[in-house]
Amino acid sequence: MKQMLAQVTSLETLSKNVYQVVLALPEAMTFAAGQYLQVVMDERDKRPFSIASCPSSTTTVELHIGAMPDNPYAMEVIEAIRNNGELTIEAPLGQASYRANSDRAMILIAGGTGFSYTWSILQAHLRDDTQRPVTLYWGGRAPEDLYYDARLRELSKQHKNFHYRPVVEQANANWHGAIGLVHHAVLAEQTDLNEADVYVAGRFEMVRIIRDEFHGQGLPLQQLYGDALAFI
After folding, report:
1. Which of 107, 132, 141, 83 is nearest to 210 (CA)?
2. Which residue ranges does the record assign to the FAD-binding FR-type domain (predicted)?
3. Is the dihedral of CA 67, 72, 74, 79 positive or negative?
4. What 8-state DSSP symbol labels residue 68?
């Protein structure tokens, strides 16, 4: 892990409250899919965000930051980007990274911008050109919250081993996926959790429920990965 000053090369909106941030690094950085960085606001205030980019990109990193006006934790980072055009970061961090040497099927579960964690892992997995199956369950409140929905549907057509399951709590008439809570969608389809590697990112409460309910359904805890697990 190193501290470095990164230049902001792009700040774009992915949805109403989600920003895509691209940082140019001062030197190449090796990281594993599923790791995160910390934005250093000051030495006593370091804010973690998952790295959304694939590890094949070593000189830039991509972040997906969910920031609403009433959420100063994330919005202050966006304001720092707008005002300064650079961020001091510490990276890479995290132990819940992609296990490429496993032969078990993969289940990726994301709530909201927790998708950025699973997106990095998915890109690395598909780049490996393996036939090991991977299913992504992405949950949001409404269809517009799933900002890469069309891209993921296209990827699922291109890769026979990749299955995409979008889930929303509030659907419209044109919705093409499941309705409800994302972990319920997983349990409705996945009946052999003891033969899977499960990666999860989202709100702590969601991760806690998944840990407890999935373990009760046969998932060994050593096959469940997510940095939030260290805090719940």
Report:
1. 107
2. 1-99
3. positive
4. -
Q: Give the pLDDT confidence score for residue 70 in this predicted structure.
A: 82
- Beta-bridge partner residues of 38: 48, 90
pLDDT at 101 over 90: yes
Apex CA 56: angle with CA 54 and CA 61, to 5°?
55
DSSP for residue 100: T
- Name the CATH superfamily, with its identifier, for domain 2-93: Translation factors (2.40.30.10)
How would residue 208 be classed by pLDDT, with cut points 50, 70 and 90? Answer: very high
Check pLDDT > 90 for residue 170: yes
Domain 105-231: give its CATH architecture: 3-Layer(aba) Sandwich (3.40)
In Å, how far from its chain's centre is CA 157? 21
Q: What is the pLDDT of residues 75-91, one digit of tens each?
A: 999 999 999 999 999 99
Q: How many CB atoms lie within 10 A of CB 166?
A: 22
